[in-house]
């Protein structure tokens, strides 16, 4: 096809042709492992099929990819593994729409498409030497785990690490194996909570809505940063609680999600006012989100 | 001055067609002016003010494949797109200044932050825009209110002006335009004729794009009652976005069987209720007034500040096409008035 273009290029208007890379063409990746987290949530470990991509791929904590289930389309998912891990990446998704529904029907060994990594990153350099408080709700946990894994990878570079994770019910908690591991670690303070109506027998965590639990555990804003992701309503009230606790909005980093199609700042739907989340986000400080158009 | 006589224009078009150049220009279809590829020079009709569709269709088609896939037991195979048929060498003949400016605006989106959209740019590289300055406008035209003019050159490669004698004075704007003239030099003659006077459309007197931008730049005006009030009758049909030369939003969707298909880039519209809706059901712009606000802000705030381009080129199509009579010019006046009283 390239030759054909060149040939026609010489003919009439003599326009020099340089073939551009097709930004919309995904990399193919194999589902290396598939773990069912909850009744409707899965984690896939993806390994790129092209050896060159496999060897060269890297990303920064906070970046996302567009994952295709061929025949259904693409969806935006934050890369949920450590950025230190080579050759493969993890994604976690809840079966909620057309594409995630199709992804959920795939098995180990099946092929998906991957575009990315896209978006900005968490400012890891700011977090060095600070106490870090991870706050996440529901399916928001996978959006901050790349930061967490990176911190644990270089544990000595960071201060105290607290993870506050809440879900609607005990059945909606993702990453239960990882949570158990974090609970075992002496250098991590793992706090898990479920909504009062979501408690089941044998639950050993806290009970209550996340913002209330946040105030109860009363973290110090001293020398600290907050890394947060969750549903809009949780974010809203968690921000209020953090303010009560004395955190400034410069100390809070959020990863925002909006519907995206291209991930490249062209398809026009992920904007919050004049900001395209896909290119200028998804990571913002709460100070930045306060200056945004109220378009959440 | 280079001149293109009316007869030579026809001969030039035939010569280009003979060399397999796609020529797109204004044609009459069922009594309506539209921009479409022509197969003969006589099909071109320059008598109308403006086409119903925008010439963005040429560079950014309503639907096109971005890749092809086959799902097999052993995995997935993909095929890239791109062929001489998909990206033919094209001359747009008889664009209007507003439409050409729209192409410049679209380009600013499709190259934004170094993410070069191949589908737009491959066509853009192969397309030469020949604009015909308007001798008249209609009552929906307002290019002069957004900093353009009937003979503006933004986005054009070559500008033609009608002469009193019915010929065209030729003004190259870019190297691409110069190359086009040089390639078919025999059709362009040196000469000088007096130009037909250009009658620009009236300026919307109470509108000022600078004041609009300043008012929109204040997030506290985001919840202003004017949005709900003005957009109350909007039906959310999206017609304004489809005819708009600068509306760039699209969807990427897989179309095909369980075994093979295409991923296609299709026009989408921020006016549709599902446009920004999350899979969870949460919709950041759940009301039509919020979606209308998004479009207006895109034109007068996002485009100028983000892409350093004109979001509205004053072609007036969104006014002509709206069947509830929602008039963007009225809103420009309203917001200008708000901007004036707010003393920004």
Quick description:
With 296 residues, chain A is an alpha/beta fold.
Describe the protein's architecture and organization:
- The complex is a heterodimer of chains A (296) and B (344).
- Chain A is of the alpha/beta class and 296 residues long.
- Helices cover 27% and strands 29% of the residues of chain A.
- In chain A, the strands form three sheets. Chain A has a seven-stranded mixed sheet, with helices on both faces. Chain A has a six-stranded antiparallel sheet with strand order 4-3-6-1-2-5. Chain A has a two-stranded antiparallel sheet with strand order 13-14.
- In chain A, β13 and β14 form a beta hairpin.
- In chain A, α7 packs parallel to α8.
- The N terminus of chain A is likely disordered.
- Chain B is of the alpha+beta class and 344 residues long.
- Chain B has an eight-stranded mixed sheet with strand order 3-2-6-7-8-9-1-10. A four-stranded antiparallel sheet of chain B has the order 5-4-12-11, with no helix packed on it.
- In chain B, α7 crosses α9.
- Chain B is globular.
- The N and C termini of chain B lie far apart (46 Å).
- Classes of the chains: A alpha/beta (296), B alpha+beta (344).
- At the A-B interface, α1, β4 and β13 of A face β4, β5, α4, α5 and β11 of B.
Question: Could you describe the largest sheet of chain A, including whether it forms a barrel?
Answer: 7 strands, mixed
Structural class, judged by helices and strands of chain A? Answer: alpha/beta
Order of helices and strands of chain B: EHEEHEEEHHEEEHEHHHEEHHH
Please state the CA-atom Rg of chain B, rounded to the nearest Å.
22 Å
Name the shape of chain A in a single word: globular
Largest chain interface and its two residue counts?
A-B, 61 and 73 residues
Q: Helix content range of the residues of chain A, please?
A: 25-40%
| Class derived from helix and strand content of chain B | alpha+beta
Instruction: Name the beta content range of chain A.
Output: 25-35%
Give a count of the beta strands of chain B, DSSP E runs of length 2 or more: 12
The count of β-strands of chain A is: 15
The average pLDDT score of chain B comes to 93
């Amino acid at each position: 096809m390239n030759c054909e273009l060149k040939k026609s290029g010489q003919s009439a208007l003599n326009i020099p042709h340089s073939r551009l890379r097709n930004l919309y063409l995904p990399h193919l990746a194999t589902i290396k492992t598939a773990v069912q987290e909850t009744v409707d949530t899965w984690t896939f470990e993806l390994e790129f099929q092209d050896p060159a991509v496999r060897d060269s791929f890297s990303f920064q904590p906070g970046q996302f990819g567009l994952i295709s289930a061929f025949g259904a389309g693409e969806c935006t998912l934050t890369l949920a593994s450590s950025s230190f891990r080579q050759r493969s990446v993890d994604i976690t998704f809840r079966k909620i729409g057309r594409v995630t529904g199709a992804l959920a029907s795939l098995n180990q060994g099946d092929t998906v498409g991957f575009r990315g990594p896209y978006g900005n990153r968490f400012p890891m350099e700011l977090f060095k030497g600070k106490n870090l408080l991870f706050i996440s709700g529901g399916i928001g946990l996978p959006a901050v785990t790349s930061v967490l894994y990176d911190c644990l990878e270089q544990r000595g570079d960071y201060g105290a690490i607290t993870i506050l994770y809440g879900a609607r019910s005990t059945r909606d908690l993702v990453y239960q194996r990882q949570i158990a591991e974090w609970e075992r670690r002496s250098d991590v303070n793992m706090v898990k909570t479920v909504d009062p109506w979501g408690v089941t027998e044998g639950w050993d965590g806290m009970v209550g809505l996340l913002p209330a639990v946040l105030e109860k555990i009363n973290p110090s804003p001293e020398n600290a940063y907050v890394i947060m992701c969750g549903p809009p309503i949780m974010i809203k009230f968690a921000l209020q609680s953090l303010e009560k606790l004395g955190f400034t909005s410069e100390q809070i980093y959020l990863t925002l999600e909006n519907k995206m199609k291209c991930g490249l700042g062209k398809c026009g739907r992920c904007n919050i006012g004049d900001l395209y989340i896909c290119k200028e986000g998804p990571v913002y400080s709460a100070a930045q989100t306060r200056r945004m158009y109220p378009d959440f | 001055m280079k001149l293109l006589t009316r007869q030579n224009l026809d001969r030039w078009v035939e010569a280009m067609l003979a060399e397999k150049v796609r020529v797109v220009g204004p044609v009459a279809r069922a009594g309506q002016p539209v921009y479409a590829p022509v197969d003969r020079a006589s099909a071109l009709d320059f008598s109308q003010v403006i086409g119903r569709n925008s010439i963005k269709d040429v560079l950014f088609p309503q639907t096109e494949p971005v890749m092809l896939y086959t799902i097999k037991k052993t995995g997935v195979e993909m095929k890239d797109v791109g062929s001489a048929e998909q990206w033919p060498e094209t001359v747009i003949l008889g664009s209007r200044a507003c439409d050409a400016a729209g192409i410049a605006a679209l380009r600013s989106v499709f190259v934004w932050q170094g993410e070069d959209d191949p589908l737009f740019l491959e066509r853009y590289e192969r397309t030469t825009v020949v604009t015909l300055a308007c001798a008249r406008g209609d009552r929906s035209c307002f290019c002069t209110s957004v900093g353009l003019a009937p003979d503006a050159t933004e986005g054009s490669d070559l500008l033609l002006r009608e002469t009193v004698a019915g010929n065209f004075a030729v003004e190259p704007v870019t190297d691409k335009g110069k190359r086009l003239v040089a390639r078919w030099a025999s059709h362009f003659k040196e000469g000088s004729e007096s130009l037909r006077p250009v009658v620009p459309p009236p300026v919307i007197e109470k509108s000022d794009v600078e004041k609009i931008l300043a008012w929109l730049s204040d997030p506290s005006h985001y919840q202003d009652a004017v949005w709900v009030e003005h957009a109350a009758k909007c039906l959310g049909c999206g017609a304004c976005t489809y005819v708009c030369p600068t509306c760039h939003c699209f969807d990427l969707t897989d179309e095909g069987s369980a075994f093979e298909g295409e991923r296609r880039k299709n026009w989408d519209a921020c006016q549709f209720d599902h446009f920004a809706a999350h899979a969870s059901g949460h919709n950041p712009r759940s009301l039509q007034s919020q979606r209308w606000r998004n479009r207006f802000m895109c034109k007068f705030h996002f485009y100028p500040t983000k892409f350093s381009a004109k979001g509205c080129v004053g072609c007036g199509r969104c006014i002509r096409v709206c069947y509830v009579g929602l008039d963007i010019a009225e809103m420009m006046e309203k917001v200008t008035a708000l901007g004036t009283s707010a003393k920004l």
